[in-house]
Amino acid sequence: MTMHTPSASYPPPPRKTANPAPQRPANSLRRTSSIDVAWPEGVDGERLFVGRARDFLTGADGQGRTLAEGEFTLRMSEDKTITRIAADPAPAEIGRLVGARAGGHLRMLLREVVPELIARADPLYLVLDDLSGTALVSAFAWGQWFPERMEVLRKRLSGGNEDGSVLAQRANVCWGLQDGNSGVTGGAALENVADADAGHLRNPADPAGWHAFLDHDGPGFRRARRIDVTYGADRGTIHIDSAFQDSARLREGGRVAIHEYSLGATVDAGTLEVIALEPKAHILPFRECPGAVHNVTRLVGRNLGQVREDVLEMLRGPEGCTHLNDALRALADVPRLVEQLRQPA
C-alpha cells in the first residue's frame, strides 16, 4: 500500500479549469455525458436528476452525426432514495430502481437491472453509473446559492455539530481524506474548497461538441464527462483524451467547480493493452488530493476492457481518488467507441 505523510507544506490545491473543451478532432468519436441536479420544490423537496449522454462521430471534414444517445429523469428524496425514474430509451426493468438508494450498492443493482446496457457499453449506462457519486456531491450546490446553507454544511464538515465531522467519519475513504489530512482534521479552509471558476464546457468554436444541458432556474449542480477517441497515425494505437468536472451554478451567474480532472491515455489497438496514462488534476478541494494521480500508473500494462475491475482492486480507498477512479472506470467503454469510430461519418 502506498501511503503518504500529511503535510502542511503541500502547495495549495489546483484551482484552474481546463475548459472549454477542445474542438472535436477529425476522424474521432466523442462521448459526452452530464447529470444536472435541480431543486424545483426548494431545499426541503425532492431533487430532480436529469442524466444525458451522447456518442458523436466526426469525419475527416469536421462534420459529424449522433450515433447513440440516452437520457434519464428521476426524483430523489433527502436520504438519496429514488422515488421516480424514466429513461429514453427505457430498459425493460428500469422501474426496479425505484426504492433503491444512491450509494455503493446501486452499482450492484444496476448490474442486475440493466445488464444489456453494460454489455453494449450504452451511453445511458454511463450516467446511471454516475448517479451515486452525483447524489453525494450535489448537495454543495445549494450552499453556493444561499450562504446560510453553506454555513450549515461547513459545520457538518468540520464537526461543529453533535454528529461530529462528516469528513472525519469518511476518513480513509480516499487518498485526499486519509486520516490526518487537512480535509479530515479541519486544517483546510472549508469556505474555500469550492472557489474555482468552472468556465464553460462548450467551446464557442465548436457548439456541436456537447449535447444540450438541462435549462432550469435556481440552484443547480452538474457532473460532466467527455471522452474523445482517435486512432494513432499508423492505426496501431488508440488515443484517448477525457475530462471530468463537478460544478454548481452561482446566483450571480457562472459556475464554480469543486472537482476537475483530465486524463490522456494511449492503448494498443490490437490487444487493448494500456501503454500510457497521463492524469492531470485541475481543480480539487484539498491540498493532499492531487497526490492520487501517481498511483494511476499501476494500470499501465493492463487490458482496457478490464479497467472497471482493476480500478476497484488496485486503487481502492486511500490508494485512489474516488472521482479520478470514476474517470478511469469510464474508459472501459472505449473498445465500444472504437467500433463506432470505424463507421463512416
Which labels suit this protein?
9-stranded antiparallel beta sheet; 27% strand; 9 strands; alpha+beta; 345 residues
Radius of gyration over C-alpha positions, nearest whole angstrom: 20 Å
The number of helical segments is: 11
* Domains, number: 1
Q: Structural class, from secondary structure content? A: alpha+beta
Low-confidence stretches: none
Q: Tell me the span between the first and last alpha carbons.
A: 46 Å
The number of distinct β-strands equals 9
Order of helices and strands: EEEEHHHHHHHHEEEEEHHH
Q: What would the average pLDDT be, to the nearest integer?
A: 89
Specify the biggest β-sheet: 9 strands, antiparallel
Q: In brief, what are we looking at here?
A:
The chain is 22% helix and 27% strand. With 345 residues, the protein is an alpha+beta fold.
Structure notes:
The protein is an alpha+beta fold. It has one domain (28-341). 22% of the residues lie in helices and 27% in strands. The termini are far apart. A hairpin with a 5-residue loop joins β7 and β8 (255-268). The relative contact order is 0.18. The mean pLDDT is 89. Strands 1, 2, 3, 4, 5, 6, 7, 8 and 9 form a nine-stranded antiparallel sheet that branches. The chain has eleven helices and nine strands. The protein has helices at residues 106-113, 115-119, 123-129, 131-137, 140-145, 147-158, 166-169, 182-185, 307-314, 322-329, 334-341; strands spanning 28-38, 47-58, 64-76, 82-88, 196-197, 220-231, 237-249, 255-268, 274-283.
